[in-house]
Amino acid sequence: MAKYPLAASMINQINRIDMISNNLANVNTVGFKQEGTTEGSFNYYLQRAQQDGFNPTKLNEVVNTIPKMDTKYIHAEMGPIVSTGNALDFSLTQSDTFFKVRDEKSGDVVYTRDGSFKNLNGMLVDSNGQAVLSIDDEPIAIEAGEYFQGEIGVVKINYDDLEKYKDNNFKIKEAGINIEQLENNDGQFMQGSLEKSNVNSVSSMVALIDAHRRLEQAQKAIQSESEMNEVLVQKIGDTSK
């Protein structure tokens, strides 16, 4: 029976490894926010399953005692601000504000902290070529010598209401989420600078090594139990004694 909690522990560590590896892969991604995970007790999952009509067996109650990875969360801390001198680079000054861009496939408004914008055929676009939006969710035209910075839309959203989306963007989890549109963007961003990723590579590497070690420990424990069971079966099946 020890295999069940050991297997559950391995799943937890595999999920941790995937998450930490993704964080490390984006250590140099502009505006990237690292993710973390929370664990929930088995009793919590048991109660939730019972509310959904699931009737647990005695095996469920006795064996499944390992905490499960519950949800992912986003670290909201700001990353370091670096000067670039590029007039189309912008870094937000508050940790819970975002630029708005138009997802080119779905047409929905999504949110980003990556302010490495570009001029594409006279329009302001993000690093993926998607239109940066104004306060009124309209594309922003750029003309030489004209002031366009005041048109850039900035919104304030709680990270608990967001989830990661493709291309280093965020989207709201569900309709009806409170999105505060800032009518005046003065002081909301700095031109000629970018916000780097908030991933701490040292602590992330330590966490990755720890997750690999825990995974290996669970694997060895399962292997040891399997070997003991094999010996036991051989002894029970040996009728020569």
Short description, anyone?
This protein is an alpha+beta fold and about 240 residues long.
Report what the structure shows.
It is elongated, with a radius of gyration of 25 Å. The model has no long low-confidence stretch (mean pLDDT 87). The protein has helices spanning 3-25, 42-51, 58-63, 201-237; strands at residues 35-40, 68-74, 81-83, 90-92, 97-102, 109-112, 118-120, 123-125, 154-156, 162-165, 169-172, 180-182, 189-191, 193-195. The strands form 6 sheets. A 4-stranded antiparallel beta sheet has the order 6-5-9-12, with no helix packed on it. It has a two-stranded antiparallel ribbon with strand order 1-2. Strands 3-14 form a two-stranded antiparallel sheet. It is built from 4 helices and 14 strands.
Uncertain ranges = none
Q: What is the helical fraction, as a range of percent?
A: 25-40%
Largest beta-sheet details: 4 strands, antiparallel
Please identify the structural class as seen in this structure: alpha+beta
**General form:** elongated
Order of helices and strands: HEHHEEEEEEEEEEEEEH
Q: What is the CA–CA distance across the termini?
A: 28 Å
The average pLDDT value, as a whole number, equals 87
Number of strands: 14
* Sheet with most strands: strand arrangement: 6-5-9-12
Total DSSP helices: 4
Could you tell me the radius of gyration in angstroms? Answer: 25 Å
What fraction of the residues are assigned to beta strands by DSSP? 15-25%
